[in-house]
Amino acid sequence: MEESSEAATVFAESRNLGLDALRAISMFFVICQHIIGQGGLIGNAAEGSGKYFLLSFLQILVYCAVDIYGIITGYLLCDKKFRLSRLVKIWLTTVFWSVAVSCCFFIFAPESRTFEEAVSMFLPILRGRYWFFTAYFVVMLVSPALNVLIHSLNRRQFHLLFAALFVIFGVVPVGSLGYDVLRISTGHHFSWMVVLYLIGGYIKIYSTPPCGWTSSEKTRILAAGLFPVCWGAFAI
Questions:
Q1: Are 62 and 230 contacting, i.e. CB atoms less than 8 angstroms apart?
Q2: Contacts of 120 by beta carbon, 8 Å cutoff, 6+ apart
Q3: Is the pTM of this model over 0.85?
Q4: Which of 11, 64, 133, 192 has the fewest beta carbons under 10 Å from its own?
Q5: Rounded Cα distance, 62 and 37, in Å
């Protein structure tokens, strides 16, 4: 009994269970977002109906899912050394699922069998097949430079940087009346992933919770704080 308790303690110390739970919630949000959007639920709802407004509210609620992943990435990797093996693993995992999904389409939707699709399934990141993995891969590639920046800025300089980024990613899109003047693609771009990475790094380096908080309490505070931060960034 004591051995199992010790094993559980070692496992809890080696993994941040709070962030693991936040990842799971974010993945659930991603699934909900795709069901509502790509699944056609909101597209088939009559505009102005109660169902339409409910689905719109739910879509806004879960829109922060990918943002949470970006912030967690910066939080966890801002003080880690760059490892090429991490990039290779991301690439191979993406290629595996790209080929697997494409093969299913080739079997059940023969009209999708084109030379371009055959090439794209082996080069999903280079061809932008999945925007998130492309953006994530680029952020991982430049993460050593981002980590140097994170550790070189003091708190005031970070605040000035975030103020400038707020103008770029928040004020400018609103001022342009929805026109994507900076080609940010409503956050579906590696530049926004860089911003999220910096936010995660700032939280890791400069968060100063009151003394006496336990590690699990700090994790819960971080998890609770991530939702309004990354949801508010694109709910403007």
A1: no
A2: 98, 102, 127, 129
A3: no
A4: 11
A5: 11
Cα–chain center distance at 87: 16
Take residue 66 and report the two structure tokens written for it: 């990918």
> From the CB of residue 194, how many other CB atoms can be counted at a distance below 10 Å?
21
**Chain mean position to CA 111:** 33
- Mean pLDDT of the 4-17 span: 56
What confidence tens digit (pLDDT) does each residue in 94-105 have? 888 888 888 887
Between CA 139 and CA 234, with CA 200 as vertex, the angle to 5 degrees is 80
Give the Cα separation of 67 and 151 in Å (integer).
22
HEC sequence for the chain: CHHHHHHHHHHHHHCCHHHHHHHHHHHHHHHHHHHHCCCCHHHHCCCCCHHHHHHHHHHHHCCCHHHHHHHHHHHHHCCCCCCHHHHHHHHHHHHHHHHHHHHHHHHHCHHHCCHHHHHHCCCCCCCCCCHHHHHHHHHHHHHHHHHHHHHHCCHHHHHHHHHHHHHHHHHHHHHCCCCCCCCCHHHCCHHHHHHHHHHHHHHHHHCCCCCCCCHHHHHHHHHHHHHHHHHHHHCC
How far is the C-alpha of 182 from the C-alpha of 186, rounded, in Å? 10
Which single residue is written with the structure tokens 């026109």?
A: 179
- The answer to whether 154 and 132 are in contact (CB under 8 A) is no
Q: Contact, 206 vs 143, CB < 8 A?
A: no
Cα–Cα distance measured from residue 154 to residue 161, given in angstroms and rounded to the nearest whole number: 11
